[in-house]
Amino acid sequence: MLWTAATMPDPKSVLLILSRNTMLKAQAKQLLAPLGWHLHVVSQVPSALDLLAKDNIAAVLVDNADYDLAALTAGVRALPAPANGTPILTIDAAAPLDDAAFAELIEGWVGPLGDHALRAAPFDTRYRLVRLVGWDNASAMVERFRGALAEAIATAQRDPATVPAHRLAGLAGMIGYGELHRLWSRVDAGEPDALAAAVEASRQALAD
After folding, report:
1. pLDDT tens, position by position, for the chain (208 residues)?
2. Which of 115, 109, 119 is nearest to 88 (CA)?
3. What phi and psi, each to the nearest 5 degrees, are found at residue 25?
4. Which of 35, 45, 123, 179 is the 20 to 30 A CA-CA neighbour of 165?
5. Is 21 helix (H, G, I), strand (E, B) or coil?
6. For residue 47, which of 21, 22, 72 has the smallest C-alpha distance?
7. Is the bond preceding residue 112 a cis peptide, omega within 30 degrees?
């Protein structure tokens, strides 16, 4: 399924704050609690890693003045999936951001703050991509892929031999659409009747 907007009140979004600064906790709570977010606040890296392993954490916000970021990152990336892909956001808690900048920082790596369904486990393709490259980059990549699929469908009707199957397979694989990657790879390999199946799957993806 390609990018669609969905907002549901039931799933929760959780931000993990690793800091000893009470002002940072207060600012995050004031900003996020009205939007339905939950906060975990810890002061020790082992406690943060333990929570990441147990809960669906959208992002880690860490005070970069107090912690070894390299060690924290190594610890997070060593966790089992999907916790190992949790975005790690750094902030200088001694000079807090204004609310708009704070929201922009978090939203840039978790998606719209009010869209809790986006972050609900199990993660779908769109959210895995957001966690990997950020909201803006993920949105741009999906829009390019959407356009490429629409163009391929139209080209398949006009001149099937010119459909850029290799490019489509590469885009699908990069974004995380495994089945479309497989189908367009079959077209790229010249398998008989592969184009019809790839076009139909692409139509369905766009419709969804």
Report:
1. 333 334 434 468 999 999 999 989 999 999 999 999 999 999 999 999 999 999 999 999 999 888 999 999 999 999 999 999 999 999 987 777 889 999 999 999 999 999 999 999 888 888 999 999 999 999 999 999 999 999 999 999 999 999 999 999 999 998 889 999 999 999 999 998 999 999 999 999 988 7
2. 109
3. -60, -45
4. 123
5. coil
6. 72
7. no
What's domain 13-121's architecture? 3-Layer(aba) Sandwich (3.40)
Burial of 131 (0-12, 13-18, 19+ CB in 10 A): buried
Q: Give me the DSSP letters along 120-141.
A: PSSP-HHHHHHHHH-HHHHHHH
Tokens 């790879």 correspond to 185
Max intra-chain CA distance, the chain: 64
C-alpha to C-alpha distance for 63 and 25, rounded to whole angstroms: 11
